[in-house]
Amino acid sequence: MELGDYIRILRQRGWLILLLALLTAAAAFGFSKMQTPVYKSTLNLLVSPSRTDFGQAQAAKVLLRGYESWMLSSLRAELVINELQLDMTPRQLLGDAAVSSDDSRFIIQFEVKNSNGDLANDIARTWGNLLIQRQEEINATLRKEDRIGIEPIDMPTYSQDKPKTTINTAAGGVFGALLGLILIFVLEWLASGVVRRPDDIDRYLDIPIIGVIPSKSN
Question: What digits encode the pLDDT tens for the residues 76-123?
């Protein structure tokens, strides 16, 4: 097929691409709106060594990994559940939580997902306070110059994590457009064996037209 053939096909059947793109985009948008929103709260904690020497900094970096394991335990999850009176098990709560650390900036990032954004913030704040209190207990047994402080950089904030309506709608539109493109070429392939006009003979068979039988006049 030549470029002109593709242009002709798109002119004749291009509306199918647009129609399917609109239908699938609308379906994706509707499906996203039907889903229950899930919000993610993020809390950043700053780990601050009392001294800036290499040894103290290295000790703080090592502790960051330990903090991750300490926070993501069923014991801490149960404490959060009891304090906030949550109707869930520690395992369920841990499934909605994640923690990571950045030893180059001495930051611990804690994330919690929940269908209630304000509750997600409360969970993150309460969980972070457990770590702060734990470190304060450890600091009480250390000399002042050996202590490591932990404090929130800011209050926890939440944003919608699911559904991603804009992305889903765009993906639905692209899928529909591709489906429409495939469909019109399938239809064109099925119709390729049917000769409807004199120029079809020249295009498909590459032979000259000797004559044409006129259609019956009404």
Answer: 999 999 999 999 999 999 999 999 988 888 899 999 999 999 999 999
pLDDT of residue 162: 84
Bond before 208 cis per omega within 30 degrees: no
Give the per-residue SS3 of the chain.
CCHHHHHHHHHHHHHHHHHHHHHHHHHHHHHHHHCCCEEEEEEEEEEEECCCCHHHHHHHHHHHHHHHHHHCCHHHHHHHHHHHCCCCCHHHHHHCEEEEEECCCCEEEEEEEECCHHHHHHHHHHHHHHHHHHHHHHHCCCCHHHCEEEEECCCCEEEEEECCHHHHHHHHHHHHHHHHHHHHHHHHHHHCCCCCCHHHHHHHCCCCCCCCCCCCCC
Percent of the chain with pLDDT over 90: 39
Q: Is the Cβ–Cβ distance between 153 and 45 less than 8 Å?
A: yes
CB 71 within 8 A of CB 99: yes
- What is the chain's length? 218
